[in-house]
Design brief:
Distance between the termini: 76 Å
Helix content: 40-55%
Number of helices: 9
Strand content: 15-25%
Number of strands: 10
Largest sheet: 4 strands, mixed
Length: 261
C-alpha cells in the first residue's frame, strides 16, 4: 500500500511539473512562441536604429517577450503599465486571427500570463505582467476603455523629455511642451529675435521637417505603430514655436503627419 502511495505522489508531482503541457502533448504556446520569436525578430531586424532584438519564449504557462531597444533616447522607466498595455492592445487588434485566438485560449486554459520585458541602452529593465484574463480584454476593449487619459499623459511626458535636446540644438533659453489643438507643441524661447531673424515660416518648417523625417525613419518597421499610437491619442502632428523673451515676437511652424511621411 505504501508503494502505491509513493507512486501516486510521484505522479502528482510529475503532473504539477508538466503544467506547460496539455493532456495530449506539448502546449500550443510552445509553437506560438517559436512563431513569435521569428516574426518579432524580423521586426527588430527591420528597425535597427530603434530595436536591438526581440525574443519570444514559453515556459511554465508564461509567454515571455524580451524587447531590447537600441535607440538611446528610450528610457523604459518612462513607460507605464497603462502605456505598454495600450500599445499591446493596438498590436493585438492588428493581428487578429487563428494564431491570436490560440494564444488567448491557451493562456486562459493554462491560467497563464504574458510577460513583456523591456531593456534600454542605459541598462534599465522593466517587466510588465499581463494575466490571461487581461490579455483577452485587451483584444476587445476600445482605446477609451484602456486608461486613455493616463496613457495620453504618459506619452505627453515622453514627448516633453525631448525639450532639452531641441533647446540645446539652437541655443534656446527654454523649451516647453504641451499637446495643444491636437498638435505636439514645442515652444522655444530665445534671448532675442536676432536668434531667429534669418528664418521665416517656410524655413522653420523645413528645419523641423528634416529633423522629424530622420527621427521617424529611424523607427524602421516600427514606424506605423508609433504613428498609430500618437494618432489614436488625437495628435495630428507637430508644432514648433519660436519666441523672444517678450513672448510676443516669434514664428510658428505646423507639421501635420503628411509633411513628414
Amino acid at each position: 500500500m505504501k508503494f502505491l502511495n509513493i507512486i501516486a505522489a510521484s505522479l502528482l508531482v510529475l503532473g504539477m511539473a508538466s503544467c506547460g503541457k496539455t493532456a495530449s502533448g506539448p502546449s500550443p504556446l510552445e509553437a506560438q512562441a517559436e512563431r513569435l520569436d521569428d516574426e518579432l525578430g524580423k521586426l527588430a531586424e527591420e528597425s535597427p536604429m530603434y530595436l536591438s532584438e526581440i525574443d519570444a519564449s514559453y515556459e511554465n504557462a508564461t509567454l515571455t517577450v524580451d524587447i531590447e531597444f537600441s535607440d538611446t533616447v528610450v528610457n523604459v522607466a518612462d513607460y507605464s503599465d497603462a502605456l505598454v498595455q495600450y500599445v499591446l492592445a493596438q498590436y493585438l487588434k492588428n493581428h487578429t486571427g487563428a494564431n491570436l485566438d490560440e494564444i488567448a485560449n491557451t493562456l486562459t486554459k493554462e491560467k497563464g500570463q504574458l510577460v513583456i520585458k523591456l531593456e534600454d541602452t542605459h541598462g534599465n529593465t522593466r517587466d510588465y505582467n499581463v494575466s490571461a484574463a487581461r490579455f483577452v480584454k485587451l483584444i476587445k476593449l476600445r482605446p477609451m476603455e484602456l486608461n486613455y487619459n493616463d496613457v495620453r499623459t504618459n506619452v505627453s511626458d515622453i514627448l516633453a523629455s525631448r525639450c532639452a535636446s531641441y533647446a540645446a540644438a539652437y541655443n534656446a533659453t527654454s523649451c516647453e511642451f504641451d499637446i495643444a489643438y491636437s498638435f505636439a507643441q514645442y515652444t522655444l524661447t530665445f534671448p532675442n529675435t536676432r536668434a531667429f531673424a534669418n528664418l521665416n515660416q517656410a524655413s522653420l518648417t523645413g528645419r523641423y521637417q528634416k529633423i522629424l523625417k530622420e527621427q521617424y525613419e529611424n523607427y524602421g518597421a516600427c514606424r506605423p505603430m508609433v504613428e498609430d499610437l500618437l494618432k489614436s491619442l488625437s495628435i495630428d502632428g507637430y508644432r514648433f514655436i519660436y519666441l523672444a523673451p517678450d513672448g510676443k515676437s516669434g514664428l510658428t511652424a505646423g507639421l501635420p503627419w503628411r509633411t513628414i511621411n
